[in-house]
Amino acid sequence: MSEEITALAYHAPKEQEGLIIVKVEEENYVWGQDFGLQRNSQSQEVFRLRFRQFSYSDSSGPREAMSQLKELCSRWLKPEAHSKEQILELLVLEQFLAILPEELQAWVREQGPDNGEEAVTLLEELEKELNESRQQVRSSSEVSKSPSAVFGEPMQE
């Protein structure tokens, strides 16, 4: 369990009655019911979102903005733990998901693919299932429209 808890000023610290309020985050752990730290598998997604949604107005100036972006990016991509190839894979996966229609994007994100190949496979399997369902619907609607199916009589041509 990592003991390193760092202060991450996602939003610029706000002064309130002489106090400085800083949001404190822990990269890989969250407080559980037993008040101990537990591994958070979604932390990478949280930092990705914070990196992507960060705004210049969230900082007090250009240097702080750049510093915060670097920190968020580092926490998202974890260059100390991932190879260049893995980081590229994460970036390509993110862009692939971004170009999908919203419904598909949400569905794929729920499935939690680790790389682009997994995302493509998930979508191909979904497409195959949908095509099979459509064929079954067409087959059943053709059968129900057929006079022989309704009346038990052979069709005349």
What features would you describe in this structure?
The chain contains six helices and six strands, in the order E-E-E-E-E-E-H-H-H-H-H-H. The chain has 157 residues and is mainly alpha-helical. It folds into two domains: 81 residues, Orthogonal Bundle (DNA breaking-rejoining enzymes fold); 60 residues, DNA breaking-rejoining enzymes fold (Orthogonal Bundle), CATH 1.10.4020. The strands form three sheets. A two-stranded antiparallel ribbon has the order 1-4. It has a two-stranded antiparallel sheet with strand order 2-3. Helix 1 runs antiparallel to helix 2. It is elongated and about 65 Å long. The N and C termini lie far apart (77 Å). The N terminus is likely disordered.
CATH architecture of the largest domain: Orthogonal Bundle
Query: How many strands?
Result: 6
How many DSSP helices?
6
**Low-pLDDT residue spans:** 1-41, 146-153
C-alpha end-to-end distance: 77 Å
Number of domains: 2
> Can you tell me the CATH topology of the largest domain?
DNA breaking-rejoining enzymes fold
Helix/strand order = EEEEEEHHHHHH
Structural class: mainly alpha
Q: Assess the beta-strand content as a share of residues.
A: 5-15%
User: Main β-sheet, in a few words?
Assistant: 2 strands, antiparallel
Shape: elongated
CATH class of the largest domain reads Mainly Alpha
Rg, Cα atoms, Å: 25 Å
Helical amount: 55-70%
Q: How would you write the strand order of the largest sheet? A: 1-4
Oligomer: single chain
Task: Calculate the mean pLDDT score and round it.
Answer: 74
